[in-house]
Amino acid sequence: MTVKILSIGLRGVEGYRVQVEVQEVPGIAAMVIVGLPDASVKEAKERVLASLYAFGCDFFDKRLVVHLSPPERKKHSPMFDLAMAIGILKAMGKLTAPVSPDAAFLGSLSLDGAIQPVDGMLPAILAAKKLGFQKVYLPYDPTLPFHHLKDLDCIFVQTLEETVQYLQGQRVLSLSPAFRTPEIIDSPRKHHRDFQSIIGHHQAKRALEIAAAGGHNVLMVGPPGCGKSLLAETFPTILPSLTHDAQLEVISLYQLAGEKIENGHPPFRHPHHSASSVSLTSFRKKSPTSKRSESGR
């Protein structure tokens, strides 16, 4: 029998439904993951098997095939670990309770069965909401604004055993005080320069004020030294605070980049004028060795 558990895959900040199919087949004992998995997903085999062993299950004499559908999309991130483990337990009869088709499972597994958050959790949660999921099983992350998520039940689980017990009806999970995420503080704006301190540039300032009031895009063109960078740097000081939806979008981008936003103000990014299109549209963390080599130039 093929067991189907749902999860969320990411392509940038856009999420899509991933169906994790698990089936026991004849053959040499092994766990095979198919469906265009990348290296982090292929390594899930060892994490999932170790977690199941810590849970008290031994499937090392079975041949299990795990298929991540749709097969034509590359699967990234260890976010599918929990869904794989639940699917295997369901296929082996260790989990007898039905799993809701409106539930998604997100999170990475450690070797002892603990469920850990990964980068991209917030975009995945927002995608689950857009795709019509009613429940999401995931580890708690204090950096995520769960208070903004409405019409979606976020069930926080800490271990694989706790998840199975909850699905079997043997445990009740509640939103404890430690799981309450505070609102993003609308703290005073911290800018070295303020829009009102700019002298001159009356027409440009008037155009920016209209753009800020109406939410319009702005393109500034001019020779070097005419004040474009100064106007752009001070522009956020007259912008209103981000709406809840805009905050979620900004936080999603920052989380994928491994950064965090500490307030509800529009962020300001200042890329160098010589930046390539690749550096503007992609993210790559520099290693300590590359930083040392650059500093020694």
TrEMBL record:
Residues 194-281 form the Magnesium chelatase ChlI-like catalytic domain. It comes from the Bacteria. InterPro entries: CHLI-like, Mg_chelatse_chII-like_cat_dom, P-loop_NTPase, Ribosomal_Su5_D2-typ_SF, Ribsml_uS5_D2-typ_fold_subgr. It holds the Pfam family Mg_chelatase. Residues 262-297 are annotated as: Disordered. GO terms for molecular function: ATP binding. This is Magnesium chelatase ChlI-like catalytic domain-containing protein. The lineage of its organism: Bacteria, Bacillati, Bacillota, Bacilli, Bacillales.
